[in-house]
Amino acid sequence: MNKVTLLVALCYCLISAESFQIQQSSSSIKNRREILQKIAAATLLFPANALAEPSPQAQSIPTNQAATSAGRRGCKTDTNPSRTVVTCTEETRKFNADGRLSSVSATANGVSTSAVKNPSRFSPPWSYLTETSDSKVAWNSLVKAVSAVDGGVEIVELTDEYLHAVVPTEFPAGLTYDDIEFILRPDDNIVLYRSVSRTSVFVYPLTQPVSDKNSNLKRLEKIRDKLGWGLMGQAQTGSERI
């Protein structure tokens, strides 16, 4: 019996034992939910490379047929009885005909100035006027700040008004990359951005991806703090999911 199968069997045993002890009352649903959440968190204890290495069964599943990739594009799904791993690689600006930054699906971890219809993934634009009114100076400062934000960051595309960088996903560990994008809007003295993990992990019975512990948001805030730029709206507080 492999580790994953053993873990699933253990989970069912725990659920059965706890359910036997819980009286049939209005609090039973809440108690069971707490048990399932603890078990889901425990399943993350298997090695990180189990998440990183796709199985031979990994396949491309259309978003309209897979709830775990709903709202995402260019996805491949790897699943077993205890968890599902979804990796999507066609969500950066080059895949958008309108040249805008993509939003962030509820099935992904990250934030974007374009996620106006998803408050939990929305973060407001930055104003660089606290540093300078010269858009070129501001853009050069941003490029330097992004380059220095993480030892593993790599800028893969850079123009006078667009930056795309990748950095290894911090959490859950052992996955793929986070895509970080910035667009300069000199007429408005602002910068738009998006930072999203390509890979999401779903652990049964959770329907939301395992949290990135707000690593995408924290990385962006680290960049903004270094620049001393302003925030054009209410700050995103991040997720409290496990």
Which helices and strands, and how do they pair?
Blueprint: H1 3-21, H2 28-42, H3 49-52, E1 75-79, E2 83-88, E3 110-112, E4 126-127, H4 135-148, E5 154-158, E6 162-168, E7 177-185, E8 190-197, E9 199-203, H5 215-227, E10 230-231
Antiparallel strand pairs: 1-2, 2-9, 3-8, 4-8, 4-10, 5-6, 6-7, 7-8
Helix pairs in contact: 1-2, 4-5
Structural class: alpha+beta
Tell how many strands the DSSP assignment holds: 10
Strand share of the residues?
Answer: 15-25%
In percent, how helical is the residue content? 25-40%
Major sheet attributes: 7 strands, antiparallel
Envelope shape = elongated
- Measured on Cα atoms, how large is the radius of gyration? 20 Å
Mean pLDDT: 82
Uncertain segments of ≥5 residues (pLDDT<50)?
1-9, 11-27, 41-57
Total helical segments: 5
Order of helices and strands: HHHEEEEHEEEEEHE
What does this structure look like?
The protein has 242 residues and is of the alpha+beta class. It is built from 5 helices and 10 strands; from the N terminus they run αααββββαβββββαβ. Strands 3, 4, 5, 6, 7, 8 and 10 form a 7-stranded antiparallel β-sheet that branches. A 3-stranded antiparallel β-sheet has the order 1-2-9, with no helix packed on it. The chain is elongated, with a radius of gyration of 20 Å.
